Amino acid sequence: MLYLDHAATTPIRPQVWEEISALADRGWGNPTGFHAAARSAKNALEEARERVAALLGCRPLEVVFTGGGTESDNLAVKGAALAGGGRGGVVTSAVEHEAVLSSVRFLEDWGCSVTRVGVDRDGLVDPGEVAEAVTPDTAVVSVMAANNETGARQPVRKITEAVRDRTRCKALVHTDAVQAFISEELRLEDLGVDLMSLAAHKFGGPTGVGVLYVREGVALEPVTHGGGQELGRRSGTHHVLGAVGMARAMELTASDRERFRRDVGEARRRFEGALLKQVPGLAITSRSARTAQHSHLRFPGVANQTLLVRLDRLGLAASAGSSCQSGAAQVSHVLSAMGMSDPEARSSVRFSFGWTTQPSDGDLAAKLTVGALEGLL
Fold first, then answer.
1. Around Cβ 287, how many Cβ atoms within 10 Å?
2. Distance (Å, rounded) from C-alpha 269 to C-alpha 13?
3. pLDDT digits over 68-122, tens only?
4. How many other β-carbons are positioned within 10 Å of the β-carbon of residue 124?
5. Rounded CA gap, 85 and 74, in Å?
6. CB 102: neighbour CB atoms within 10 A?
């Protein structure tokens, strides 16, 4: 199988498996205990926290381990809005991941004010428009670093600066960087955000573990209640092996990023170049501002579900969009917000490359896609 659905999840890197396996016989304890097994797990957990912090350029205690990107987004948005018993407002974009948008709808039901800022045809927000939506009651602004469907990269730094320039603005800025980390260097000092979400399984780590960066001094209302692990910000027994695996995956991703961008960029160039020559009317989404790994294409007149079934039979894995919505009947909210009609959205397919991609995969992907389109155009 030629796997081009890395935006949904990606295979675990061999070195990550090796580190997890080596730790399995001594890292299984509950790190909140006081005996030897607990201390061993605690040491591994805190070392992983330090490794993640070093990569992001923050303090270890600003790193909160979670159950994945969805939990990180929920904690950031709900936690900021409800901190201190308040019901603060939220400003977000119309193209966020469902983890953010569902959190926003929940807060709306609780009486929080919400503003959803629109995007242009490339799926990008205007930093000035985001800032204009901020009021003294706004608790958090949440705009993703890169879109999970199209790969469109938002100007996070400019958004942060625009929000900070607002008079009497105390709003926190959160970015969902789940899709961005694999190809973009995300240094917190450059982004200027207060909160940032990551998920290990998007860049070669295990599923079921994520990180939320929380700037020192930021107060969050917990959304998962229990034993108060993670300094009271998140409860639940730590997934120590997952945390260690995530730290290792982040290190490998950071060191491999230059090679990744080169090989994935070449694979995508070959893929799209061949299709543009052979598929009439083919359109590339967010072409001018996207991550290296995303290729979101529209095949006019071709139902994406039909094409995906044919591709799967030929051994190529792709998707219709978000892994949270790919089986849903409704049209993607992301594509609708970008101004696509329902027929245009239903003829769109996401091909997402990853750390296993080789340049020649672009040639093979194009050949298989042309084969799958036979008789459909």
1. 14
2. 25
3. 999 999 999 999 999 988 899 999 999 999 999 999 999 999 999 999 999 999 9
4. 20
5. 16
6. 16
Residue showing tokens 């790190």: 31
Positions marked active-site: 324
Q: Who's near 211: CB < 8 A, 6+ residues apart?
A: 52, 63, 64, 65, 66, 72, 197, 198, 200, 246
Tokens read off for 333? 């909210």
Contact between 356 and 317 (Cβ < 8 Å): no
Start-to-end C-alpha separation, the chain:
25
- pLDDT at position 337, please? 97
Kindly report the number of other CB atoms within 10 A of residue 155's CB atom.
17
pTM exceeds cut of 0.70? yes
pLDDT tens per residue across span 136-190: 999 999 999 999 999 999 999 999 999 999 866 789 999 999 999 999 999 999 9
Read off the amino acid at residue 2.
L
